[in-house]
Every structure is written in structure tokens, then in C-alpha cells.
Fold this protein.
Amino acid sequence: MHADPQHADPKHSFFDATDARISYWEWGDPAGQPILLIHATGFHARVWDETIARLPKSYRIISVDMRGHGQSEKKGLLLDWSLVAKDVGELVDHLALTNAIGAGHSMGGHCLTQVARARPQMFERLLLIDPVMLAPANYESSPYNDLTDPSEHMVARRRDAWTGWEEMYDRFKDRHPYSLWKQQALEDYCRHGIRPNEDGEGYRLACPPVMEASVYMGSVNANLTGTLKEMTLPVTILRAKGREPGDEPVMDFALSPTWDQLYKEFGNARDVSLPHLSHFIPMQDPALTAHFILNAQASADEAVAAAK
């Protein structure tokens, strides 16, 4: 499957949700079946470009910048993950989506689950790509429980100032886990992952480091265990390579955070293990990601074969 360059010029819009101004992008046929895409922590709507390039133009594709990310409003912190779901849910209502295919990566998978749980009539099915939905015990013993402020989190110390996206790309391209990504996916991440400074000199991350750190700290309060059985929408959960016993303290964002029994929490879900991939599935293999979005019953073997 090859990328389609005709998907290159999306329509960019803003929506004033109750609590934040939300940026979103649209591709394809406005009358087509909707595909709603929600990105991971610290990312933005345009990290999906390589996946979108492999989706037919007959779909209406919508990719959202979550609050605090991309070109959406940077307001407060994100210690409460229900905030982003509220924003996206209001956008879904505003767009009056029906029969939508939802795909969410990492924290975006958690957000999508919240949105669809409240609006099941608007979705045909969900694809949760290595969602940050942990084993119940991990909510009790999180390493973030001892932190009192997001500024204390290691992510808050990320480099924030850049001369341009090219500098960011050159710094990341040979570093784990970015070195696992498709080159174009990393370029897209860097191009749209910085915003010009107000004084016109240089750039800063579109998701401020303290904002990103607050999302990680908020994960301990985002436990949906025991609340999903009534969701009867078909759900596919993709899981990347997980941690081995004893690896729990290792800070490696390439390893899957997803509970391997998560599928049992839903009323109608299946688990697909992809141990050859890292947590960054859409950036590492956008063709495989597109195949799962388009094919509700795709197996791991079928998807890998189709993506080649």
C-alpha cells in the first residue's frame, strides 16, 4: 500500500469548546464516512499524516489537536484527563458525526474511549492503538504518586527552544525511540510540533514540557477499570511490545503501557498483539495502522502482509 500525495492539503479549522479553543484538520470527502483520529501525549493532529495518506479520499478524515497540544489552546494543566474528552466530545457533537470510525493512539485512545462511551450512537467501531489504560494495580503504585507538581517530572525538562523544525529533526532522527519511526513521520512530528515565539525569534514546542508532564501525572487518576462493560461497540486494541518482568522501573516510552487483559473490560473487544512494534505504531508502521482502521476484523498476520 502506497501513500497518496493527493491528501496533502487539509482544511484547518478551530472550534470553541466550552473551556478551550480546539484546532482540527479535515481531509477527504465531507460527505464520506467519518474517521476521527486522536493523537498521543505531546504530539499533535498532523502526526497522522502518513496514516492518512494511506486512507481512501472517499472518507471524511478528522484529526484533532487535543487541548494543550498543536494549535489548540494552551490552558491550565492536564492533570484531569476528562478535560480533553470533554473538548473532543463537544467537537464530535458540533460536527454531528454519525457511523464514525474512531482511532486513538496512547492517551488519545483513552480520550476516544471516554468520548465514545458517552456517545456510542455516533460511532461504528473503535481502534485503540496501544492506549494508556493500565493494569489496575498500576494505578495504585504509579511512580508519579510521589510527585507534587508537574515541574518535578523528567518530561518537564525537555528542550523547549528551537531554531526550526530541521534542528529538531536532526537532533531526534538517530535517537531512541524516534529512530524507529518512518522518516516522513518524524518530519511531520517536527514540522508541526513547534510554534513561532511571539517575538518572532525562534520556536517552542507546541505542547509545552510542563503541559506534557501534567498529562503523565494525570494518568494515575484516569482509571476506567470496571466502567466499560456497557460499551458494545466493536473495539480493536493494538498492543505493542510490553515490559518484561522486572522492567517496570525502566523509563522507556517505546514499551507498551496497555494492560494485556484490557479487552475483557469492554463488552465487545478483541486484543491484537504486535510485539515487533514499539508504542509508536502509527509512526513506525502507518500502512499497518491504516489497514486496521479500514478493516474491522483484520488479524495481525493479515495486516502485516497487507501493509508490505
User: Anything to note?
Assistant: The longest strand covers residues 21-28.
